[in-house]
Amino acid sequence: MQAGTLVRRYKRFLTDITDINGKQLTIHCPNTGAMTGCAEPGSKIYYSRSDNQKRKYPHTLEFVETEHGLVSVNTGRANNLVKDALLNGRISEVGSLTIDQVKPEAAIPGGAGRFDFQLAQGGRTTFLEVKSVTLHLEDGLGAFPDAVSTRALKHVKELQTQVQKGARGILLFCVQHMGVHRVCPAYDIDPDYAKALKLAAQQGMEILAYGCQTDLQTMTLSYRLDFMFDG
């Protein structure tokens, strides 16, 4: 992991930075969200390098230092973090699972698209969808989403449908902002999502939030956070 300074983030997938020697680089930004509060010019950042010679941009933005804490902006990490936690028993509401019990990218029964995971345990199917939280509002309160997300709304409704059919449905917020200690829906950003989330919860969909620990080299999903509708 190498350190640098953020110059600007643009075209969703590109970020200009300067390295520790002052050289400007254009690197890949693995985050499709608005990155509100995580893309301020002048912020200290950390980036990785890929050995894949076919990549146009070999470097990837990984972490941004904000005034509220370190943020892992690589949202592609979230599913791997959750899978590792599932296999090692760090999500107490699910328990420890074997690799055969965890099916990534599971097709939605009777619908279009996929859930992040299908879990097999106790004779009942569990569908688990993961959402990455990087938005900090105030006083340790994080929120999702950081921009209007029709895709996230669709996943909530699909989970709600599966719960109504008898499956267990879990929406897990993977909090990749080290300064966030509790999570709520982003009412002001996407009120339709917040409304759908509350309705789904009332009808039996489970909502979990878990935080991460990192030393920049390794990262683990390791502790439960509070989720609340009233912030």
TrEMBL record:
InterPro entries registered for this protein in UniProt: SfsA, SfsA_C, SfsA_N
SfsA N-terminal OB domain sequence ranges: 7-73
Organism superkingdom: Bacteria
The entry's keywords: DNA-binding
CDD domains: SfsA-like_bacterial
Pfam families: SfsA (PF03749), SfsA_N (PF17746)
HAMAP family: SfsA
Family: Belongs to the SfsA family.
NCBIfam families given in the database record: sfsA
PANTHER family for the chain: SUGAR FERMENTATION STIMULATION PROTEIN A
Protein name: Sugar fermentation stimulation protein homolog
Organism: uncultured gamma proteobacterium HF0010_16J05
Lineage of source species: Bacteria, Pseudomonadati, Pseudomonadota, Gammaproteobacteria, environmental samples
